[in-house]
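Input record (one chain):
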Amino acid sequence: TVFQLLAAINFATHFIALKKRSFNPYTDDMEARAFLILVLGSCVIAAYVLYDAGTYTDFFTALRHASFNLVSIAADCGFATQDFNQWPIFVPMWMLFLSCLSASSGSTGGGIRMIRTIILMKQARLELFKFIHPSAVKSLRIGDTVINNKIVTSVTGFIFLYFISIVILVFALLLSGLDFLSAFSAIIACFNNAGPGLNQVGPASNYAGLSDFQTGVCIFAMLLGRVQIFSIVILFVPEFWKK
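The corresponding structure, as predicted from the sequence alone:
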């Protein structure tokens, strides 16, 4: 579990921490701090849900199983020690949600990445502030760094392409006859390189039961997610091929 957490944190942060021989870089880095708070807090909540539902009779057993499997999916490691298909639906769905956004930039994880999530949240907060104070002049900042509007536009464009790609690919699987839960979880898991999904593609089974078309859709989702969308989508833009 610890090594899975480390793999989802920016490797530059690890380098700085090793160089300084201090844990301060992890607390100073907003992205790493947000990731650890979100994932570790989610582990406790998931453990409580499992314990309260009677899935495990002991809270610490629930915490152990919840922590490994939740961190594995959130960090896009793809390991599973339990069939979380059998868990209360909140927990595996929350695990898939975390796989979309929790991993840090410069890590082995996929998805939107935590830094983009932070920028989008701060931009939303800034827009609300400007709505209340229309004459105010305020810049988007992360720490002491002012974030350029071009970066915000790029992040917004990426997140739009991310979600519209997921919607299109989920509908492609639904069109092929796959049930919604399997289709949705398969695309989320493949797009984020998270490994197992739910239902037919859950941790106790695999993707071998999918048809050739369904497998092809999942392969395309993995490619899109691994290269962070733009590198593939740009190939379908006519202007790219014009001299």
